[in-house]
Design a protein that fits this description.
The chain contains 13 helices and 13 strands. The strands form two sheets. The chain has a seven-stranded parallel β-sheet, with helices on both faces. It is an alpha/beta fold.
């Protein structure tokens, strides 16, 4: 488990265009309130693009959560204030924005447009919609056409959901659905999910099956060790934040929140029960449930452990339902979203580089 640290170092690399690689600025953010999905997506894309460009992350000065993850991954980042970025770094060939924090974005986009630098933005459910050149929304929920920017090119739907490329490989494997469920993986996001984890574990305990239960601890510390010390008999409960894709694929059931972890479970073909942190996640979950791709557990704050135990008993007795959930999930998410989004970004960089070679007006 990676916990936030008290580091204050700012890494501003010394760039040279002699490398021949174009630059990509990535504006993102993470934290317990806004979640870690934006940063996770940005890191996946940066890794996929590393051989084709030089990714540089633009952070708010106080974003210790993103900074810690980027330092651990040896990524280049800048966090001395977005207003000074044009004077501090060489101009990029494209800018990627994936954050729900709107502060400074208008100025960044305006400056990019003046310089004819393309801006690509990534959204969830159309939130924080921006006047970017290209907008990507991998949500299963259709965007409202009345609220689209007229000069923005949109790429929408789960075909553009950015996941770790390993999920594309897992989606091609046969997913066994066992008659008897033997393991459950719980992934409720990177922030403080204490109140939800306790309810889920109590529901599993009421179900009263001797079963392996693996919890993904997330990125922040909220008492995981204390929770693990409780007596969850007959469950065999443990925390494990390593090799999450393999653990998810090997599990007979996944219980997740309604963010990226839900899409990962769909792609892996693991039958999914999903709870919502808020009304926005509930929109996603209801859409997936109507497509028979998950079991809707409703808002996490309203979840009753006894109701979860009932759902588990029903699924245990209905292997056909679990097979249906697995098939439908994979039909919705094929795991190739990162590949498609990378192509969009590279095309934007290519167009920008050609303009730079000719001399931007």
């Amino acid at each position: 488990m990676k916990l936030s640290g008290a580091k204050t170092m700012t890494v501003v690399p010394q760039y040279s265009r002699l490398t021949g690689l174009p630059y990509l600025w990535i504006r993102t953010a993470a934290g317990p309130k806004i979640g870690f999905g934006h940063l996770r997506r940005s890191l996946v894309l940066a890794e996929a693009l590393r051989d084709a460009c030089r990714p540089v992350f633009l952070l708010d000065p106080g974003d210790c959560w993103s900074r810690t993850q980027l330092e651990d991954g040896n990524c280049s980042f800048y966090c001395d204030g977005i207003d000074q970025v044009w004077e501090s770094l060489p101009e990029p060939d494209a800018i990627l924005i994936d954050t729900r924090i709107s502060s400074g974005l208008d100025g960044l986009i305006s400056a990019a447009k003046t310089r004819r630098i393309p801006v690509i933005s990534i959204h969830d459910l159309g939130l924080n919609r921006l006047p970017s050149d290209k907008a990507i929304d991998g949500s299963v929920v259709p965007m409202n056409p009345d609220s689209l920017h007229p000069n923005t090119q949109y790429f929408t739907g789960p075909d553009y959901m950015v996941l770790d490329p390993i999920y594309q490989a897992l989606s091609l494997l046969n997913k066994p659905i066992h008659q008897k469920m033997r393991s459950v993986l719980i992934n409720l996001g990177g922030g403080d999910s204490a109140r939800f984890y306790r309810k889920v574990l109590e529901g599993l305990k009421l179900w009263a099956h001797e079963i392996e239960v693996i919890g993904v601890p997330g990125f922040s510390s909220w008492g995981q060790e204390e929770l693990a010390r409780n007596d969850w008999t007959p469950l065999h409960f443990r925390w494990d934040g390593r090799n999450i894709p393999q653990l998810l694929f090997g599990a007979d059931l996944a219980i997740t929140a309604g963010g990226i972890s839900a899409y990962e479970a769909l792609c892996a073909g693991t039958p999914l029960l999903t709870l919502a942190y808020d009304e926005l996640q509930q929109i996603t979950i209801k859409t997936l449930s109507s497509a028979e791709a998950c079991i809707d557990l409703g808002l996490g704050d309203d979840l009753l452990p006894g109701d979860l135990a009932i759902q588990l008993s029903r699924l245990e007795a209905d292997i056909a339902k679990r097979q249906l959930l697995s098939r439908n999930g994979r039909r919705i998410v094929d795991g190739r979203g990162t590949e498609r989004v990378v192509r969009i970004i590279l095309q934007s960089i290519s167009n920008s580089s050609q303009q730079m070679d000719r001399g931007r007006p």
